[in-house]
Write a structure and sequence with these properties.
Blueprint lengths: L2 H11 L7 H14 L11 H10 L5 H14 L3 H6 L2 H7 L7 H16 L8 H5 L6 H12 L8 H12 L5 H12 L4 H14 L17 H5 L22 H12 L4 E2 H8 L4 H13 L3 E4 L2 E4 L2
The structure holds iron/sulfur cluster.
């Protein structure tokens, strides 16, 4: 085992005032300075927080702001979302992309109604059992809606852990364990939000170290070496090109169907005008996922 790994292990097994204390204090000290003042950080409504976290899974904050308000107005509770026609949920999702998330959000709302008395569950494992909920979303909802002491690791926080805290590549369990340790006991939601804010504004793919408030505590900056965030757990790779992708074709058809039904031939043409085989496969996928239905030669949003 490398000496760096030993350092991290000592950090994780020490309780109370541990090796993370100076960094933790620094994060607390700069939290209000880096606060992005996001509307979902001002509510304690678990459903509104749950919706925001699902929307933020693959979409930027700027694009989520307006749809989040619209969605929460239309569907203010899990029950309201669970009972709505899927087409209405997909319409409210307009502009966010990855519509499979909207279908999963409704299925999760239906599970909340059937299994959790219409409430968002507060336990990480129960949250993980909901459709479309991965580790990030489960930990974020537990931390922000219920004040649980769990670390929230998005791509940027994954970079802070790898670069600033350990200067080493981390496995998923170690990144999760380390983030929970770093968050500490006092106001974990505030600490998690500060880490997300710091990561989003400074510890990006191209880091802004010169202006980063954590630079005096950052091990990578102090010790140098190759970027440890590359391939580290929680740090996602750049998305594939959107132009010409299946994602773009699916989005094109779903946007059209928000205006009304269309003939199957038209739908195929929208999906892939020069490639009937690809268009048919895409339409079949959308149908299998419940996002559209095809009846008597016409295509409509899933219902
Ligand atoms: S100093 Fe640079 S690498 Fe370190 S946490 Fe800040 S932005 Fe990230």
């Amino acid at each position: 085992m490398s000496s760096r790994r030993n350092d991290v292990d000592r950090t994780l097994t020490t309780s109370g005032n541990d090796e993370l204390t100076p960094l933790r204090r620094r994060i607390r000290a700069v939290a209000s300075r880096v606060d992005r003042d996001l509307p979902w950080s001002l509510t304690r409504d678990p459903w509104a927080i749950y919706v925001s976290e699902v929307m933020l899974q693959q979409t930027s904050v700027a694009r989520v702001l307006e749809p989040w308000r619209r969605f929460c107005d239309l569907f203010p509770t899990p029950a309201a979302c669970a009972e709505a026609p899927l087409g209405d949920v997909l319409r409210a999702w307009a502009g966010l992309g990855y519509p499979r998330r909207a279908r999963n959000l409704q299925r999760a709302a239906q599970r909340m109604v059937s299994d959790f008395d219409g409430q968002v569950p507060s336990d990480v494992e129960q949250l993980r059992s909901l459709p479309g909920v991965g580790p990030y979303t489960a930990h974020a909802v537990a931390a922000f809606a219920f004040g649980r002491r769990v670390g929230v690791v998005d791509t940027n926080v994954g970079r802070i852990l790898a670069r600033c805290v350990t200067n080493s590549r981390l496995s998923a369990p170690r990144a999760q364990e380390l983030s929970t340790q770093l968050v500490g006991r006092a106001d974990p939601a505030r600490m998690n939000q500060a880490l997300l804010d710091l990561g989003a504004q400074f510890c990006r793919a191209t880091p802004r170290c010169d202006s980063c408030p954590l630079r005096s505590e950052c091990r990578w900056r102090r010790e140098g070496g190759p970027d440890p965030a590359m391939e580290s757990a929680g740090v996602s790779r750049p998305q594939a090109r959107f132009e010409g992708s299946n994602r773009q074709a699916r989005g094109r058809l779903l946007a059209q169907l928000q205006l009304g039904t269309c003939r199957k031939a038209v739908a195929l043409n929208i999906l892939a005008p020069d490639d009937l085989e690809r268009a048919s496969a895409l339409l079949a996928d959308l149908e299998n996922e419940g996002l559209v239905s095809v009846e008597r030669g016409r295509v409509r949003l899933g219902s």
